[in-house]
Amino acid sequence: xxxxxxxxxxxxxxxxxxxxxxxxxxxxxxxxxxxxxxxxxxxxxxxxxxxxxxxxxxxxxxxxxxxxxxxxxxxxxxxxxxxxxxxxxxxxxxxxxxxxxxxxxxxxxxxxxxxxxxxxxxxxxxxxxxxxxxxxxxxxxxxxxxxxxxxxxxxxxxxxxxxxxxxxxxxxxxxxxxxxxxxxxxxxxxxxxxxxxxxxxxxxxxxxxxxxxxxxxxxxxxxxxxxxxxxxxxxxxxxxxxxxxxxxxxxxxxxxxxxxxxxxxxxxxxxxxxxxxxxxxxxxxxxxxxxxxx
Length: 294
Prior knowledge:
The protein is an all-alpha fold. The chain has helices spanning 2-18, 27-50, 57-83, 91-105, 114-139, 168-198, 204-217, 220-230, 237-260, 269-290. The protein has two domains: 1-109, Up-down Bundle (A middle domain of Talin 1), CATH 1.20.1420; 114-290, Up-down Bundle (I/LWEQ domain). The protein contains ten helices and no strands. Its main location: cytoplasm.
């Protein structure tokens, strides 16, 4: 794959240079350049298709995304050359050439097996969830206006509407929701550490278990976002309860899949149990606070 990406990068350079100054290439040269570019791209796609699905869907998706970026980059470069005024090197052509180089260089950062791919996927999920938790913590600072960063409406004047603030009852409910969001972060941190320490990609079973973990972990971030959105005023306690229940269900599933997999030897079972208890505890508090709304 690295070899085909390198050849594609070189072909992009050749193509771009050929159309960077007069005289323009002859029809014959154009055909040769076109064939070389096409062969390079076909080689990239072929090597991607050679990657067996059994090596892991997480790994395959990352390789596919990198391959797609190279192909799309070359299409963009070709379009830039075709649409540029004759005998001039356009800014778009320069940017597109750099884009192909950048896409081709990505091959060196690609994971080499499914364990490394799942570590990378979990790390990305953790980053998004950390940001969401931090944002919500900042918004919940005592006395702060959650919409403080939004300009006042000129026609309506000062936003004295109760719907833009949290009541004391809202804050009690939201503290349990924050507990669930923090449990999401802790879950991802622990699963990521377990995959780094114990994850293997030596057998079809291990590879499949890692893919299952990556798939369910991918559901955490959207669930955290949905819960966070429903926490802004005016708070609808039933919507909050529903979104909290969705997140709790995803977290329990993550812990269940982790516990049943090879990344969770007996030494790791303590935190699985602890986090499962933390999810239940916070979800029960959310249920208690919203019971009167049912």
